Amino acid sequence: MFRNQPMNLVEFTFDDRLDTDFLNELYGGDKEHATMVFEQFLKEIHVQLKEIDDSYNSGNS
C-alpha cells in the first residue's frame, strides 16, 4: 500500500484490525482499487482533520 513499492496482489491481505469481510465484499476482491482508495485517504486525511480542528477551534462546530 505504499507508493513506489510493487504490490503482489496475490499475497495482499487487509490488516486484521479492519473488517476484512466487509472490505473484501466492498471491493469485490479488487485489491488494486482498494489500495488506490486507501492511498488517497492517507494523502488527504491530514488536511481534512486540520480543517475540522480549525473549525472547532474557531467555534464553527
Percentage of residues in strands: under 5%
Helix % is 55-70%
Spans of at least 5 consecutive residues with low confidence:
none
Q: Kindly provide the radius of gyration, computed on alpha-carbon positions and rounded to a whole number of angstroms.
A: 16 Å
Task: Classify the secondary structure makeup into a structural class.
Answer: mainly alpha
Question: What's the layout of helices and strands?
Answer:
Blueprint (H helix, E strand, L loop, with lengths): L19 H8 L3 H27 L4
At a glance:
The chain is 57% helix and 0% strand. It has 61 residues and is mostly helical.
Describe the structure.
The chain is an all-alpha fold and 61 residues long. The chain is 57% helix and 0% strand. The longest helix has 27 residues.
Protein traits:
57% helix; 61 residues; 0% strand; mainly alpha; 2 helices; single chain
